[in-house]
Design a protein that fits this description.
Blueprint lengths: L5 E7 L2 E7 L4 H18 L7 H7 L6 E2 L2 H15 L10 H7 L11 H8 L7 E4 L4 E4 L12 H15 L5 E5 L2 E5 L9 E6 L8 E7 L3 E6 L4 E4 L2 E4 L14 E8 L2 H24 L5 E6 L3 E5 L6 E3 L5 E4 L1
Helix pairs in contact: 1-6, 6-7
The chain binds adenosine-5'-diphosphate and magnesium ion (MG).
The site of adenosine-5'-diphosphate (ADP) has 17 residues, from helix 7.
């Protein structure tokens, strides 16, 4: 069996995107990176001419017709935002822009500013017209942010592209959003995915996940945050309060078939906290979850200890 791997990488979406194949195939890698670039150009809020920016700039004014992948993604994001008790909110953009966490934001905005933005984040005020494929934000100042879902969607798209080109085994890493397509030709036929050690300055890991045909997506508070008066403010915001969520764990990783769903649930479960998340997962045996708590415990839900191997003994493994 061929044990060799071929890695291709490119900086996209402000992160390193990596594609690992079991064959040398520059042409496919180029097709994948081009498709990702095209989707990024449509979704970004950092360029004034993207489709999402067109929607946001027309807030309170008029609906904007968008391309079908963008419409489909917004539709999914709105659905996730309307799940009862979901902290996921595609209309969070005014608050994200105010806090600027991960983008030079260094201080807590005033209560007034937060409140003014918070009232612009009602997902029910995002109107979708599927006949026209148009999106209308009802109030001026509203905005869509797909940061919590875009990479999952993109990973699933890459899988489709690869399969269309006859590639059934590959690993896609979109800056930490990982999708294992099929199985690996290497060790035990599993793809081995490292789980990052929170707040570590280099590429240290706490353990290894062994997966086939699964996505692994992490929402954590250790990459984008700032500190003020000894408190940490990170980038997942609570739409109910306008402040960052503050939970008993540092990260949650979701193992799922669809990377889009993993991305949605990593954010939703971060918002729920450990005990409510365990309740949700008891009804979703198809979703595995790994929580890293503030007191160095690693809690596995719907994941067995053969799938996750602890390597950092300063952490303690807790099964189900
Ligand atoms: P990561 O960016 O680490 O992969 P997430 O997938 O959870 O983590 O996405 C966080 C991003 O989503 C933020 O940077 C912001 O753009 C956006 N965001 C912040 N809070 C929310 C929220 N409550 N609902 C949806 N998106 C959010
Ligand atoms: Mg997410």
């Amino acid at each position: 069996m061929n044990r060799e791997t071929y890695a291709y990488s490119k900086t996209l979406m402000g992160t390193c995107v990596e594609l690992i194949l079991h064959e040398s195939n520059d042409a496919v890698a180029e097709i994948v990176f081009k498709a990702l670039q095209q989707l990024e150009d449509k979704l970004t809020v950092n360029q004034s001419n993207s489709e999402i920016m067109a929607i946001n700039l027309a807030a309170g004014l008029n609906p904007v017709v968008v391309s079908s992948p963008v419409f489909a993604l917004i539709e999914q994001a709105k659905k996730a935002s309307l799940i009862k008790g979901s902290c996921f909110n595609l209309a969070i953009e005014p608050l994200v822009k105010l806090w600027k966490i991960g983008f030079n934001g260094k201080s807590v905005p005033s209560l007034d500013e937060i409140e003014q933005k918070r009232i612009l984040t009602d997902p029910n005020l995002i109107h979708l017209n599927s006949d026209e494929q148009s999106v209308f934000l009802e109030k001026k100042g509203m905005g869509i942010d797909l940061g919590a879902i875009a990479k999952g969607y993109m990973a699933d798209m890459v899988k489709l592209i690869l399969q269309q080109h006859g590639i059934d085994n590959a690993l896609i890493n979109l800056g930490g959003n990982i999708l294992a397509v099929g199985q690996s030709n290497c060790v035990e036929q599993y793809w081995r995915v490292g789980l990052k050690k929170p707040f570590a300055t280099n590429d240290e890991i706490v353990g290894i996940l062994k997966v086939k045909n699964k996505s692994v997506v992490t929402s954590g508070i250790y990459e984008r945050y700032f500190e003020q008066n000894g408190r940490v403010y990170h980038h997942i915001l609570n739409p109910l309060t306008g402040y960052p969520l503050d939970k008993e764990f540092i990260s949650v990783s979701i193992i799922s078939a669809s990377s889009l769903e993993g991305d949605i649930y990593s954010t939703i479960l971060y918002g729920k906290g450990l005990y409510e998340s365990i309740d949700v997962l008891s009804k979703r045996s198809d979703l595995g979850a790994i929580f890293i708590t503030r007191n160095n415990q690693i809690k596995l839900i719907n994941v067995d200890d053969k799938t996750f191997e602890l390597s950092d003994k300063t952490y303690q493994l807790k099964l189900n």
